[in-house]
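Continuing from yesterday's entry. The apo prediction looked reasonable, so today I'm repeating it with adenosine-5'-diphosphate included to see how the binding region is handled. Same sequence as before; SMILES copied from the compound registry.
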Amino acid sequence: MSLALELEGLEKRYGEFAAVKGIDLSVERGEIFGFLGPNGAGKTTTIRMIAGILEPTAGTVRVGGRDMARDPAGAKARIGYIPDRPFLYEKLSGGEFLRFVAALWGHQGPRVEERVDRFLELFSLTPWKDELIDSYSHGMRQKLLISSALIHDPELIVVDEPMVGLDPRSARILKDLLASFVERGGTVFLSTHTLEVAEALCHRLAIIAHGEIIARGTMAELRHQADAGGAHLEEIFLKVTGGDEVADLMDSLRGVLEG
Ligand SMILES: Nc1ncnc2c1ncn2[C@@H]1O[C@H](COP(=O)(O)OP(=O)(O)O)[C@@H](O)[C@H]1O
Ligand SMILES: [Mg+2]
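Holo prediction written out below.
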């Protein structure tokens, strides 16, 4: 059986600047894989290439064995992408938006309506089903976005900075949702600079800094690599990313705490 996600020599350049410098990565089915790194490390750039909305300068993305460059429709249909900067149609209601996204994937009819209602119920959005997204709070938009990424029944969920802006209850629902998704054979790839999220959720991790993977493995393996037996992930992260990234990381953490 094919891997859930394979990246080979994945690279993105903007002129002279290399945002992502030749990443090789394999994610097995049923894994929650964490992509951890400070601001500007190249997480969003990598994820946008995985989602097929940013063209790599070099390298390959394969989703469930489907090559993103050769079979974009096949690869994309297997992915549910939850972006860090959501775009929602303000003048649609929540229900209309979910139906619209389902229709884009070619799904229509009573089964879709059932799924729409199920997600709205799960995120306590049922009373808002017919209200315009215009009037939704940030957290409600986030929840709608998560629902829209799952509406076409993808095999792989790709999440960019998932917990930002979610209230504790919704963060908990998202965690449970991801956990039950992988229990049923799905796969999750998530980027975060929140160490607690990575540590609590992920089976395996890769740490990215300056567009390169500098460490990878299970928590136990990362501990070994950092030669920091028994250390908390935060210490490992600080140890392997070193000097200037620590300042960046602290800025990001402060941003998260204040935001
Ligand atoms: N369109 C772009 N043009 C030029 N540089 C970019 C562009 N998009 C991202 N970058 C740069 O690429 C690097 C990685 O960015 P990004 O992938 O957003 O990092 P992260 O998500 O890890 O914070 C950053 O230095 C960023 O400024
Ligand atoms: Mg980012």
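Comparison notes:
- The pocket of magnesium ion (ligand 2) is lined by residues 43-44, 84, 160 (CB under 6 Å).
- Residues 168-183 form the longest helix (16 residues).
Will overlay with the apo model tomorrow.
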